[in-house]
Amino acid sequence: MIVAIVLAAGLSSRLGYPKQLLNLGEQFANKRLIEVVVDQVLASEVDRVLVVLGHQAQQIRELLQDKELSLIFNSEYRAGLSSSVKAGIEFIKEEETLEGILFLPGDLPYINTAIINKLLRVFLEEKTLILVPEYKGRRGNPTIFNVDLLDELSRVSGDKGGRELIAKYDSQVKTVKVDSPAIHFDIDRAEDYQRLLEEGMNYD
Question: Over 80: is that where the pLDDT of 158 sits?
């Protein structure tokens, strides 16, 4: 079983507005950012979807309440990304059939099911320790971690999430080439959001 954990608890401090609630305009049928991301994950071949909430949790919960997923509240969300990683791990650690965990930040609007499914298939075929997508020589998201790293994931700290484990096990990281810059485009600042609205990028 592969579980997807969507990380959507952040404060969006650089944006100044909860990015999860941004309306992405007509290109995305006027859906909110978190809806767009979650819908793509749900349409993929993952076995289960969790969404970790924190800042503005109630509003996000209302947007997602009718979808087939589990919502987790991370009470320590102000401590950074790693607190959400740990909250997700705590929720699934007893799953006996767990093989891997796919982590996806909730601010990548162009990640689609084709990208997710490609990563899942490679991971299940090769059972690598860590798997990351790569576009034009640069790594991106989402990332899949083998269940063998569950304990170490539960001990990550700060705002790095799983990046410290990727650095630690760099020689065992499997990269999968994808044909889309979607793995790099996140909405972190107002300029990113404006660019999305104005350019209407097509990363399919």
Answer: no
